[in-house]
């Protein structure tokens, strides 16, 4: 016959030592989980800091490139126009490199990580600069043709001077720098 009497509590349930071990295991697992969660949060914060640092570096490099380009290629030309309004020689035009905007070109794919208003301003500014550089290239080619005693070159140069003046004046200087120096 099978004994249908209930077993004593000590054999059906857990002893106090077993309960203590089980609770300790749960506490240990919870602590390990908390450590993992905190570590991931800290790693995420570090990644965010790193990403913000990259964004700041790109923005700073773009500002330096814009400012340098303005000071080197636009400011002097605008000053020349102010003093020599009727002069068409424009000897102050400096030659441009094949890639006058290496920072912009090198980082164009990551500009989307910057705030939208900043991206809009950067893209607009470089769009103006690209148009200006294209006009300067046409002007330089006109000078080359003119130097070969071809009167077409002079016509090209004289036609482009007002366009260069207008485009140079449309490109704003960065407000944080003194443009007179």
Describe this protein's structure.
By secondary structure, the chain is mainly alpha-helical. The protein has 5 helices and no strands. It starts with 8 loop residues before the first helix and ends in an 11-residue tail after the last helix.
Mean pLDDT: 78
Strand content: under 5%
Overall number of strands: 0
Shape: rod-shaped
Number of helices: 5
Structural class: mainly alpha
Taking the alpha carbons of the first and last residues, their distance comes to 109 Å
Helix-strand sequence = HHHHH
Please outline the major beta sheet: none
Q: Helix amount, in percent?
A: over 70%
What integer value in Å does the Rg equal? 35 Å
Give unreliable regions as ranges: 177-181
Summarize the structure.
This protein is mostly helical and 181 residues long. It has five helices and no strands. The C terminus is likely disordered.
What is the element layout, followed by pairings?
Blueprint: H1 9-12, H2 16-83, H3 102-107, H4 116-147, H5 151-170
List the defining traits of the structure above.
72% helix; 5 helices; mainly alpha; single chain; 181 residues
């Amino acid at each position: 016959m099978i004994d249908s009497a209930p077993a004593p509590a000590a054999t059906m349930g857990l002893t106090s030592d077993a309960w203590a071990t089980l609770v300790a295991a749960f506490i240990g697992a919870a602590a390990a989980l908390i450590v993992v969660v905190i570590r991931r949060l800290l790693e995420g914060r570090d990644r965010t800091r790193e990403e913000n640092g990259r964004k700041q570096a790109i923005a700073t490099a773009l500002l330096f490139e814009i400012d340098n380009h303005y000071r080197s290629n636009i400011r002097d030309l605008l000053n020349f126009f102010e003093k020599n309004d009727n002069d068409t020689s424009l000897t102050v035009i400096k030659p441009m490199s094949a890639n006058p905007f290496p920072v912009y070109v090198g980082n164009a794919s990551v500009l989307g990580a910057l705030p939208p208003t900043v991206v809009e301003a950067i893209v607009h500014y470089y769009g103006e600069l690209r148009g200006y550089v294209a006009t300067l290239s046409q002007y330089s080619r006109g000078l080359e043709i003119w130097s070969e005693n071809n009167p077409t070159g002079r016509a090209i140069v004289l036609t482009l001077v007002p366009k260069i003046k207008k485009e140079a004046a449309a490109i704003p200087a960065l407000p944080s720098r003194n443009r007179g120096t």
